[in-house]
Amino acid sequence: MTELQYINEDNLWLKLSLNLGAPVGNLKDFSSVAFGVEAAAQFMRSDNYGYRITTGYTKYYDKDHAVLDGSTEGFGVIPVGFMGRYYPQSSGFFVGADVGYTFFTDFDANEGGFYVRPVAGYHNYNFKFFAFYNQVFQGDPSIDVQTIGIAVTYNLKFN
């Protein structure tokens, strides 16, 4: 295992992702599906550990005739977070988690909350395919935002 000492073009990657989610918990009464995009910068601290910052946008589409916080148009979330990943081999299985803060859009009474998103999947040099669970924790949970989903990531390398 090679330890990488500094951020450089060999160990810094830009990652672009698409995700598809199914709302769970009481959110499934209001939203039928969630679709999102993400961008992240990942620093590979070693051959097996990666750290990154991430953001994106996910739209939760409403169910027919469902009203959530006065809206029938669904709502959006913008996460801003940090991530850690463990890659046992250069391709194959990986695990990790994202943590951070999620800002809500199109919600009258909610500004956002802390989120956690554990992930597990398959990776190679160019792509990553994974499953995730996402939950947003709020001080006044008028709606419990939980999602399970799948995602695909494309890795843009600078070298």
Describe this protein's structure.
The structure is a single chain. The chain has one domain: Porin. The radius of gyration is 17 Å and the shape is elongated. Strand 4 (75-86) and strand 5 (92-105) form a beta hairpin. The protein has an eight-stranded antiparallel beta barrel. It is built from no helices and eight strands. It has strands at 12-24, 31-44, 49-62, 75-86, 92-105, 112-123, 127-137, 145-157. By secondary structure, it is mainly beta. The model has no long low-confidence stretch (mean pLDDT 85).
Which structural class best describes the helix and strand composition? Answer: mainly beta
CATH class, please?
Answer: Mainly Beta
Identify the CATH architecture: Beta Barrel
Strand content: over 45%
- CATH topology heading: Porin
Gyration radius over CA: 17 Å
The number of domains: 1
In what order do the strands lie side by side in the largest sheet? 1-2-3-4-5-6-7-8
Distance between the termini: 20 Å
Q: Stretches where pLDDT falls below 50 for ≥5 residues?
A: none
Counted by DSSP, the helix tally is: 0
Amount of helix: under 10%
Q: Give the SSE string.
A: EEEEEEEE
Please tell me what the overall shape is.
elongated
What characteristics describe this protein?
159 residues; mainly beta; Porin; 8-stranded antiparallel barrel; 8 strands
